[in-house]
Specification:
The chain is of the alpha/beta class. A hairpin with a 4-residue loop joins strand 1 and strand 2. Helix 3 packs across helix 4 and helix 8 crosses helix 9. The protein is built from 13 helices and twelve strands. It folds into two domains: about 240 residues, Rossmann fold, CATH 3.40.50; about 100 residues, 3-Layer(aba) Sandwich (Rossmann fold). It starts with a helix and ends with a helix. The strands form two sheets. It has an eight-stranded mixed β-sheet. Strands 5-4-3-6 form a four-stranded parallel β-sheet, sandwiched between helices.
Length: about 350
């Protein structure tokens, strides 16, 4: 495979950049850095839909996204000559918006936040309205619920197992659930004992935190996506924006790896895990590169203005909490133990009962 890739050019951008480079960051710590990870599921979902006939060349692709899944769809739709319309909110940075438009995607910015579910709910409402207008001439990839999303990561899992073995621990941020769940399911086919650590942020409802404003983007959610299979996670770590930003910069300063803050959030957790278990292989998922964050995470003045500079200390270990809903910044660890979300939340109700 490596010899063939050295001799033959890739057929297009999506073929060239769908998979990451796996980089050693310590004796037993590795980081799998994607150019932007959501390109892999975007490519797989669109190819599967075209093969099944659920997406036809004359239909418009509609999706809700404020990050790199939109970019992945834009690249793939451009390659296949498909129309694309993205529903997003004001959090999308101007650089990403401009790149989407240059790839011929339409960008609809939803400015009103729903009372429950925040912008993600209002974006979905806008998408559903557009679907009713287009009727059969549209296709919704449904990144948060289609089984094709996690299924795409079986190829990434095979890349890990061929290079490093299927055992050990996988560490990754959780937003849609596709990357962590899809990868670990494939790895556990070969090594049932492989561990999964999910990295979330405070004020994300996925693992039981109360919903609220989040400075750290690219992970977390105001809704619980169907593709998050809670029973797959051994541990869940919550990281603050300040810690993730500090870890992102440390990753670049120490290893030359230019990445975004979701990579930083997972790196600090993976670094801790690798130190705790020096005989275990730890693989950290790095979802994207750092180009979008030059004027934010990599800028001292921006960090100062947003109250993240003085707080940006790279901690060595997390605190532990009796329940994820009570976890507090900057970094907290909870032993999820492969339980359902309901089981974990019900455990708090039992704990709160009068004794």
């Amino acid at each position: 495979m490596d010899t063939i890739r050295k001799l033959l050019p890739f057929s297009g951008y999506s073929a060239a950049y769908a998979f990451p480079r796996i980089i050693r960051c310590g004796t037993n710590l590795y980081l799998a850095q994607f150019a932007f990870m959501k390109l892999l599921p975007a490519k797989y979902i669109i190819e599967q839909a075209l093969a099944r006939g659920t997406l036809t060349p004359d239909a418009k692709v509609l999706e809700t996204s404020s990050g790199t899944f939109a970019l992945g769809l834009a690249v793939v739709c451009r390659e296949f000559g498909l129309q694309l319309e993205i529903f997003t909110d004001p959090v999308m940075d101007k650089g990403l918006e401009n790149r989407l438009k240059s790839l011929n995607a339409e960008v609809v910015i939803v400015t009103e936040k729903a009372r429950e579910g925040g912008y993600q709910r209002s974006r979905l409402d806008a998408l559903h309205t557009r679907m009713r207008q287009l009727g059969q001439y549209c296709f919704w990839p449904r990144q948060y619920e289609t089984p094709d999303h996690p299924a795409a990561y079986k190829y990434f899992a095979d890349q890990i197992s061929e290079m490093l073995g299927a055992g050990g621990t996988l560490v990754g941020s959780v937003g849609s659930g596709g990357s962590t769940c899809g990868t670990i399911e494939r790895l556990r086919q070969k090594a049932p004992g492989a561990r999964l650590i999910g990295v979330d942020t405070f004020n994300s409802v996925i693992f039981g935190q109360p919903d609220g404003e989040r400075k750290l983007r690219g992970l977390g959610n105001s809704l619980v996506p169907k593709n998050v299979k809670h029973e797959l996670y051994d541990e869940v770590h919550f990281t603050s924006a300040s810690l993730a930003f500090a870890a992102t910069r440390a990753l670049h300063e120490r290893h030359g790896i230019f990445a975004g803050p979701t990579s930083g959030a997972s790196y600090v957790v993976g670094r801790w895990r690798a130190r705790q278990f020096p005989n275990e292989t730890v693989v950290v998922i790095g979802p994207d590169e750092g180009h979008r964050y030059l004027e934010t995470v990599y800028d001292d003045e921006w960090l100062k203005q947003n109250g993240c500079f003085d707080q940006g200390v790279l901690l060595d270990a997390p605190a532990s909490e009796e329940h994820p809903s009570t976890a507090l910044p900057p970094w907290n660890r909870y032993c999820w133990s492969r339980r359902s979300r309901e089981a974990v939340l019900n455990a708090l109700e039992v704990f709160d009962e009068p004794r």
